[in-house]
Amino acid sequence: MPELPEVETIARGLAKRITGDAIESVWLGSKPEPLKSPAAEIAAALESKKILDVRRVGKHIVFDLASSSGAQANGGKPETQWIVHLGMTGSLLVCAPETELAKHTHAIVRLASGRELRFVDPRRFGRLSVIEEFEAPGAEPLDVGFEKFAALFRGRKTPIKSALLNQKLLSGVGNIYADEALFRAGIRPRRRAASLTRDELRRLHLSLKRVLKQAIRLGGSSVSDYVDANGEEGFFQLKHRVYGREAKPCLVCKTPIKRIVIAGRSSHYCPKCQK
Ligand SMILES: [Zn+2]
Fold this sequence. Notes:
Layout: H1 4-18, E1 23-28, H2 39-46, E2 50-57, E3 60-66, H3 68-73, E4 80-85, E5 91-95, E6 105-111, E7 116-120, E8 127-131, H4 146-153, H5 160-165, H6 175-185, H7 198-220, H8 223-229, E9 258-262, E10 265-269
Antiparallel strand pairs: 1-6, 2-3, 3-4, 4-8, 5-7, 6-7, 9-10
Helix pairs in contact: 1-7, 1-8, 6-7
Residues 250, 252-253, 255, 270, 272-273 line the site of zinc ion.
């Protein structure tokens, strides 16, 4: 499942390639799951619109759209937004129209430049919707300041790992980066969120931003490959220190990494380095 850094990388890649292009027409498949807004509504919102920007909000990809007259009247502000959530297996491809249609293509957006933007999703957990102005429910982990970050966890009796994954608190933090941030901060995933000291919260705030930014930097170089070829190669170059390393020696102290399940998600930690 793409996590925040992958979504950021994909959004940046799309922005580079299709910002300024315009949408001529839209084809939507007959499978109902990917369509969170009715097909007619999506088509009406997208057709004849200019793409002002493509960006990430939480784990969503947001296309800012405006008709050419509307963009001028609004001072460049979007009139409507197309929101894509990639789910487990969703991908967006920019390609020439003669490119063979992949199985499980649920949407084709024809661009004025002659290219097509296609949404492909074999498992159909991805979602397409249109909205006037999208707001993620939680705080943006890359922007949130320390005081606001600390306040998110005040009085929370849930494990810190669950709190990090709670999308109403922070938007877009997934399982891998939650484990990696907790390791770097020296905090066990099962600790009650409310029990974290100010110092620990400070370390967690820093390590979460660092690990996400590092992953974005590493993913950035392979953007066009991803968007074109639909391969995930290059995305997981960030060396995981605990995630997926059950029973392997901790990279710091050589203690075997433990794996536990918290709220149905596997969590990895070093019993010596993390308190
Ligand atoms: Zn260790």
